[in-house]
Amino acid sequence: MLGETQNQFSLTRAASITCGRAKSNFLSAWLLLILCALPAAVQAQFNYKNTGGQFTITKYTGTGGAVTIPDTYNNLPVTAIGTNAFASSTTVTSVTIPASVLTVDNYAFYSCTSLASISIGNGVTTLGYGTFQGCRALNGVTIPNSVITIGPSAFASCISLASVLIGNGVTSIGNAAFDSCVGLTSVTIGTRVTTIGIQAFASCSSLTTLLIPSSVTVIGSYAFEYCSGLSSVTLGNNVATIGAYAFYGCNNLTVVTMGNSVATIGDSAFGGCVSLASITLPSSVRSIGNNAFDSCASLASAIIGNSVTTIGNYAFSSCDSLTGITIPNSVTNIGDFAFYSCNSLASVALGNGVIRINRAFLACNSLTTITVDVNNPAFSSLGGVLFNKSQNRLVAFPPGVAGSYTIPNSVTSIGNYAFESCLRLNGLTFSDSVTTIGDYAFYGCTGLASLSLLNGVTAIGSYAFSGCTGLAALTLSSSLTAIGNYAFNGCASLIQVFFQGNAPSLGGLYVFRNDNNATIYYFPGTTGWSTPFGGRPAKLWNATIQTSDSGFGVGANGFGFNITGTTNIPIVLEATTNLVLANWATLKACSITNGSIYFSDAAWTNYRGRYYRLSTP
Asked: What digits encode the pLDDT tens for the residues 506-543?
């Protein structure tokens, strides 16, 4: 038999000569059949399938090394390399694909782990799904201009791939096409590419710079996610969409230059880009997605273009270097927590278009001033605090303001979350005009130590003062008719709660949940009380100075009297010399043990006259 080392020409020639001879004997006929059936040595490395006047290579059967794909077989063109044709051929080191081949099918060279180089002929138009995926030794590739489509995962996990040149015929780079090519340092994208697919270059951690040509209109979701070495990105002028998570986790990215066609920045598009120092959004941008710049810790400057209408939830959250932000007039909606925990943010200027804002500046612990354009139809500002237009509802208090605050007389309601987590607030004075306190209004205000709602307030929302861990004493007005569930949940320091009126309706069983030291006190003549109330014990506060028993009058230790009431209720005994001036001084603060205590005033002779009264702490 002829050896495998013979070339295609000699075998073909021998076969044709043999086939042309007369069949003179049995041995000659037997040899004729064998030689006519044998392909050439090179062609013997492959299995073929005739697909109507052309051949597809369906299987590589050779021993490896450098492989050249033939351009014809039996005088017909070889036009395709079929699915899995070379898959897991671990000894193949290089492949040359001729111009006759039009399609390299799905997984054709999948996991050819020794394949170091590939020459793609200029007739190939399609690289299929996973074509070279897992070719760990492949170090470079030039995709010719004939190629139109690079399929999904075509070069995924080619960890030694250092450079890629994408020809000018390619219009689409498939999903995950170069995903996890961790050695990729250089990529040139052809001038006809319009779409960069989902996860196309994700986790290409050695890629340092990126130039997106003007032909590209869409950068898919996750396209460059976790390209941790990427420091500079320039987007061509026709890029309209930056997909969700497109550059997420590019933690060395410092410069992003956007073209003038970007309309949409997707959710988390630049989230976690901790080195990004500034961003300028062109006037073409219409929406900023949820978490778009979340955790960009070095972002000190963000200029929002004047066509943006929506800033998504958490869009700039945890941008710790951001010191100020101006919201242009085009913005109508600022999403929940849009600037959450921007710890250096000191000032915010809202344009005249904003009509919705909710918890946008929560935990911005340096924020002291919120201003609003005077032409804004929905909001206004007074003293750096955000109100609705008519200033009868307080919307948001800057969390960085320290000390105490007096609520203006125009305010009738405190909005939901208005003072949420204002950690530096240590005192509040309510005007008599306030009637409603919204849900979570003072949630987590840990600096509040005492609170008196003496007049006007009729309703307190759910969780309104939840988590006010420093709140020790609370006095609630006689006008109060409703308290939401969990309103005072988790006020761990709360000891005394005094209700001046009838028992209000409760929104649930847990109004005072986790307030393990609190006791509820109510006054004589009020109704609706029972114990427990809102989860805590309730007691009648009925302290009285006894003026008709034997203890009243001058005794051995001065002027004195008995004080009686419910056992262990707290009291404060005060005195004054002038009822008009009413300068009351505290003489004693204690509890009525065993239902009665005696008080004597040894200094009573120092005054021409003295008046006494009892009050709550």
From this structure: 999 999 999 999 999 999 999 999 999 999 999 999 99
Evaluate whether residue 391 is within a structural domain: no
Helical pair 26-37 and 8-20, crossing angle rounded to 10 deg? 140
In a domain, 189, yes or no: yes
Are 77 and 162 members of one domain?
yes
Euclidean distance between CA atoms 295 and 276, whole angstroms: 10
- Asked if 580 and 611 count as a contact pair (C-beta separation under 8 A), the reply is no
Instruction: For residue 19, count CB atoms less than 10 angstroms from its CB and return exposed for 0-12, middle for 13-18, buried for 19 or more.
Output: exposed
Q: Report the greatest alpha carbon distance in the chain.
A: 155
Look at the chain and report how many structural domains it folds into.
5
Residues written for the chain: 617
Q: What pLDDT, in 10s, does the model give residues 343-388?
A: 999 999 999 999 999 999 999 999 999 999 999 999 999 999 999 9
**What range does the domain containing 588 cover?**
544-615
DSSP per position, 81-123 = E-TTSSTT-TTEEEEE--TT--EE-TTTTTT-TT--EEE--TT
Q: What would the pLDDT profile of 254-307 be if each residue is shown by its tens digit?
A: 999 999 999 999 999 999 999 999 999 999 999 999 999 999 999 999 999 999
Shared domain for 472 and 602, answered yes or no, is no
pLDDT of residue 497: 96
In sequence order, what are the residues at sequence separation of 6 or more whose Cβ sits closer than 8 angstroms to the Cβ of residue 84?
106, 107, 108, 110
Whether residues 559 and 467 share a domain: the answer is no
Q: What is the CATH number of the domain that holds 94?
A: 3.80.10.10
- Domain membership of residue 47 (yes or no) is no
In a domain, 138, yes or no: yes
Q: pTM to 2 decimals?
A: 0.86
